[in-house]
């Protein structure tokens, strides 16, 4: 019995890993292990011998079993210690230099515009940037041959060679959302739609992608006077400058009749645009009374409903309000520019603060 104990306790102590330990366990206390074999021999013994040897074997079995569990626990602790040593982390090391992102002026201005129009009862609508020919042009009373299609320097999407449907376009303005929104909600309605638009154009005041906010208000008795009031109210709230001066200039758009473009009085001073005085005018939006054909394309009866629409250049608004000289820099992703012209994450849009 003592030999057995010495042998197995020795093997347990010498086991290199858990697999070794399992081998020892099977050999010693497994169903076919050495102690089980000895137990079987009990049958051949005299009752006196059995009374001695039986309990001793059971005690030995318990001793070996607990020695194995103790060794196993020791191995697991050692493994954990080893892992913790490799995963050690010095939490007292200095952190990385703090780098703060900024809110892009376009995002900031979009928020400001949305907040002002929300106060005026306009909700936000959306539409896709890849648009069908119909929504971008036909539904807005710009038929296939219309010169406005060429003037807008449209980006056309590719179609398969055997596909003769009109190609999709990158929307050239946010006006297609007028139609999409009317289809969804009908009249009366008051919406704005800020978003990206695309035209093949590039100079100090034009980039191939830029931002507009479309506006549309429809009811039974909406007039040009309402349009003028809303736009003036908006500009006063947005620019926060006494004496902001707007100029309504008769214009032409296929989707409005009559139409007006709106300019804002400004002048250049040392590379920066100043507002409210001077002899220059910067165009910031196109507008007008919605054409009956457009109302009909949106599924509402032009004999019952009428409305105004406008499209404002968001990037232009940002340049004017925050004195940013070159539009192209908006989209260069130059971190120095962003740190200079960007906004803090908690900087509230103008009207939310009030
Ligand atoms: N869609 C026009 C443009 O992009 C702007 C506009 C919108 C004009 C709504 C009138 C009414 O130039």
UniProtKB/TrEMBL annotation:
GO biological process, one term: phenylalanyl-tRNA aminoacylation
Membrane-crossing segments per the record: none
GO MF term list: ATP binding; magnesium ion binding; phenylalanine-tRNA ligase activity; tRNA binding
Alphabetical keyword list: Aminoacyl-tRNA synthetase, ATP-binding, Cytoplasm, Ligase, Magnesium, Metal-binding, Nucleotide-binding, Protein biosynthesis
Pfam families per the UniProt record, alphabetical: Phe_tRNA-synt_N, tRNA-synt_2d
InterPro entries from the UniProt entry: aa-tRNA-synth_II (IPR006195), aa-tRNA-synth_II/BPL/LPL (IPR045864), Phe-tRNA-synth_IIc_asu (IPR004529), Phe-tRNA_ligase_II_N (IPR004188), Phe_tRNA_ligase_alpha1_bac (IPR022911), Phenylalanyl-tRNA_Synthase (IPR002319), tRNA-bd_arm (IPR010978)
Family: Belongs to the class-II aminoacyl-tRNA synthetase family. Phe-tRNA synthetase alpha subunit type 1 subfamily.
Protein name (record): Phenylalanine--tRNA ligase alpha subunit
Species in which this protein is naturally found: Jannaschia donghaensis
Gene field: pheS
